[in-house]
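Forum > Structural Biology > Help requests

Title: Can anyone predict the 3D structure of Putative multiple sugar transport system substrate-binding protein?

Hi all, first post here. I have the sequence for Putative multiple sugar transport system substrate-binding protein but no way to get a structure on my laptop. I'd be grateful if someone could post the structure tokens.
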Amino acid sequence: MKKRVLGLMMTAALAMGLFAGCGPADTGADPAATTDTATESSDSSAPAASNGKRVAVAMPTQSSERWINDGSNMKEKLEALGYEVDLQYAEDDVQAQVSQIENMIAAGADCLVIAAVDSSALVNVEEQAKEAGIPIIAYDRLLMDTDAVSYYATFDNKGVGTAIGKYIEESKDLANTDETYTIEFFMGSPDDNNAVMLYNGLMEVLQPYLDDGTLVCKSGRTSFDDTCILRWSQETAQQNCENYLTGFYADEKLDICATAFDGFAYGCKAALEGAGYAVGEDWPLITGQDAELMATKNIIAGSQTMSIYKDTRLLADKCVTMVQAVLEGSEPEINDTEQYNNGKITVPSYLCTPVAVDKDNYKEIIVDGGYYTEEQLAE
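Reply #1:
Sure, ran it for you. Structure tokens for Putative multiple sugar transport system substrate-binding protein below:
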């Protein structure tokens, strides 16, 4: 079984030839370049002899559409290269994921791809993989407090928060307005490093407007600790929003729901409808992330304002090239060796670029890019 390949000494040459739709935080990237790359990168991946090698893919849950897409995309691409693929979902059960990974190791996996439910619970099983010589690639959620991880494939998570913040800033013209807007925050899971980075990117944009009173959070809950939602729970987001509306907005309308995930947007939508808000009348600006099919339909209908489009086909492509490089004894393409310190090491990473989508540009980015069809969106 191949020994784990570490890529801690990366040269500048590794940053050349990046996907057109992926790269360091540039949320103004050309949408056409982003979507066209999915076909280009798939076509350029020539099948290689897998020598019967097995790739085990541990995904967190099937409760979110994006993880289903991630898993199926990766499985398809790995199998096209001739690898045997063991894809399993833990349904947000921490111990279930630990057991799954233990079984993957025992079954003779040659490489592990892990999107963690709670990475703090995986430290011991990751050490088992390291001792067995099995390389680990973290997928879209950084594996914390371990030196067993070789690489990390993700989107620019701070850039996601920045894009959400800038969308709010520009939509409400915060830099120039004399108006005051009320806002409440619904941030990601405290056991997911991505959630913290997203929050940091968001607040870099919005904190000045909270400080000068342009934005007012009547609940006073603006810190990450006060706004994070364990396991990205839609139900908790709805309950929080209901509590805010009842406790703080009986006499004044809520203008902005700054949410970090489409599931949170669904929860806020349900809470707002229950409180009597109506689309087209007093409906607030609602943000999201992942551009799920339902979220895109809601954007078209006006009950969600925007989402962050993250083409999981591109992310799967990038992770597959990492797997292939590791198993062939070479070094994968990397474009970040500084941001993702997991408490033990700084993990060499590849960051794809997120893109904000709304009613004005979803056709160009999502439909023309082949992510969803008009028929799917009309169902």
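Confidence is low (pLDDT under 50) at residues 1-49. The chain has two domains: 50-154+312-342, 158-309.
Shout if anything looks off.
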